[in-house]
Amino acid sequence: MQEKETSLPEEHGENTVAPETGSESPVADTSPDTAAEPTAEQRIAELEAELAQVKDQYLRSLADLENQRRRASEDVASAHKFAINKLAAELFPVKDSLEMALADQSGQFDNLKFGVDLTLKQLLSAFEKAQIKEINPLGEMLDPHRHQAISMEESEAEPNSVIRVMQKGYMVAERVLRPAMVVVAKAK
């Protein structure tokens, strides 16, 4: 038989001539062994390779997440460990001033009082920089979250109001470090 040539379009749109066998009607080959369809073993191998790749990506992501958690934990621990550094640096001049006052042998009370007053100002400045606020509740109503009543006295003031502050309290960012020790009024 004689071979006929028919044109088949290629991927790039060019026509090429392909030999045709004796049959005039083109019939698609539907056998399972065609090159276009992979065999079951090939498909399993492809899926296993894809699974290995996804598993590798998952393990890398998991390791990356664990590293981020570890770094964040170390950062928090470091922040807690060294948070006091700023306050300590502010307190060093206060300690130095107190040591100088104790070492003073001049016997001049006014100079000593002046030095202690300056030292108190240094301490208050350090507290301000550390955002430590005083709780001085004189005249306020008793707040058990910020005040600690140590006694009650009869007074003309409203019952449960603070009439005397025995020891000031302190707080940082709305958190009480030490409650104020107070005396409150009781009804007559």
TrEMBL record:
GO cellular component: cytosol
Keyword set, alphabetical order: Chaperone, Cytoplasm, Stress response
CDD domains given in the database record: GrpE (cd00446)
Presence of keyword Transcription regulation: no
Disordered: region residues: 1-44
Bias type Basic and acidic residues, positions: 1-14
Chief localisation class: cytoplasm
One BP annotation, GO: protein folding
Compartment list: Cytoplasm
Keyword Cell division: no
Gene Ontology MF: a single term: adenyl-nucleotide exchange factor activity
Task performed by this protein: Participates actively in the response to hyperosmotic and heat shock by preventing the aggregation of stress-denatured proteins, in association with DnaK and GrpE. It is the nucleotide exchange factor for DnaK and may function as a thermosensor. Unfolded proteins bind initially to DnaJ; upon interaction with the DnaJ-bound protein, DnaK hydrolyzes its bound ATP, resulting in the formation of a stable complex. GrpE releases ADP from DnaK; ATP binding to DnaK triggers the release of the substrate protein, thus completing the reaction cycle.
Subunit structure: Homodimer.
Family of the protein in this entry: Belongs to the GrpE family.
Protein name, per record: Protein GrpE
